[in-house]
Amino acid sequence: MAIGGDYPSPVTVNGFACHNCTEVDEAKKHIDPAHPKDGPFGVDAPPERRHGPAVILDGKAAELKDGEKLAQRRAQALGGAADLQA
């Protein structure tokens, strides 16, 4: 048994490929082993390594973000004003 050696093949922990015990411990804390100085969840990452949201709502789906607008459209579709909060 090798002490302090790398794993024969990478293991995945929280979505990160880990090659040794140190990287596994970092990944368990949600720290990317490839960029440990970025901190947990990459909060201290430089702007070039940050990415935007996974999904950008547009068109009809964008209305879901504004509940009041969506309620008004539903009321219009029903043929008039409706009190949806009652």
* Biggest sheet record: 2 strands, antiparallel
- Radius of gyration in whole Å, from Cα? 23 Å
H/E topology pattern: EEHH
Mean of residue pLDDT values: 78
The N- and C-terminal alpha carbons lie at a distance of: 69 Å
Low-pLDDT regions:
none
Structurally, the number of domains stands at 1
Task: Trace the largest sheet across and list its strands.
Answer: 1-2
Q: Write down the overall geometry.
A: elongated
Count every beta strand, where a strand is a DSSP E run of 2 or more residues.
2
Decide which structural class fits the backbone: alpha+beta
Brief synopsis:
With 86 residues, the protein is an alpha+beta fold. The chain has one domain (11-77). The chain contains 2 helices and 2 strands.
Describe this protein's structure.
- The protein has helices at residues 21-28, 67-77, and strands spanning 11-13, 16-18.
- Strand 1 (11-13) and strand 2 (16-18) form a beta hairpin.
- With 86 residues, the chain is α+β, with helices and mostly antiparallel strands.
- It has one domain (11-77).
- Strands 1-2 form a two-stranded antiparallel ribbon.
- The longest helix has 11 residues, at 67-77.
- Helix content is 22%, strand content 7%.
- It is elongated and about 70 Å long.
